[in-house]
Amino acid sequence: MRGRCTRPSSGGALLAAIVLHDIGYAPEAADVGSTPSTERASSSGSAEMSSSPNGSRTSDDATRDSDSSPGVHDDQFNIPRTVSDQIDVNANILPVHGSDRLVQELVDPCPSVPVDAPVPEVERLFRRDRSLRAVVVTGAAVPALLTREHLAEELTGTYGFGRSLHTRSRVADLLAGEECVLPHDISLVEAARRIMQRTRDTRYRDVLVVDRNRPLGVVSITALFEALADVFEQIASHDPLTQLPNRRLLEERGQRVLPDWIGCGRFAVLYVDLDGFKPVNDTLGHRAGDDVLVQFAQRLSSCVRPSDLVARVGGDEFALLLLDATAEQAQVIADRVVLAASAPFTIDGESVFVSASVGLAVPDDVPATCSLTPLDMLLRRADTAMLEAKRRGKGRSMRLTSPSDAALPERRAAIRLRLRAAMESGTGLSLHYQPKLDLATGRQTTVEALLRWTDGILGPVSPAEFIPVAESSGQILRLGQWVLEQACEQLERWMRAGQERAVAVNVSPLQLAVPTLADDILQLLDQHGIPPRLFKVEVTEQAAVADLVHARAQLERLLCAGVGVALDDFGTGYSSLGRLRDLPITIVKIDKSIVDRVDTDTAEALLIGGVIDAAHALGLTVTAEGVERQSQLECLRQLGCDTVQGFLIARPQPADQLPTGSAATAPLSLFT
Question: Fewer CB within 10 Å of terminal CB in the chain, N or C?
Answer without folding.
Answer: N
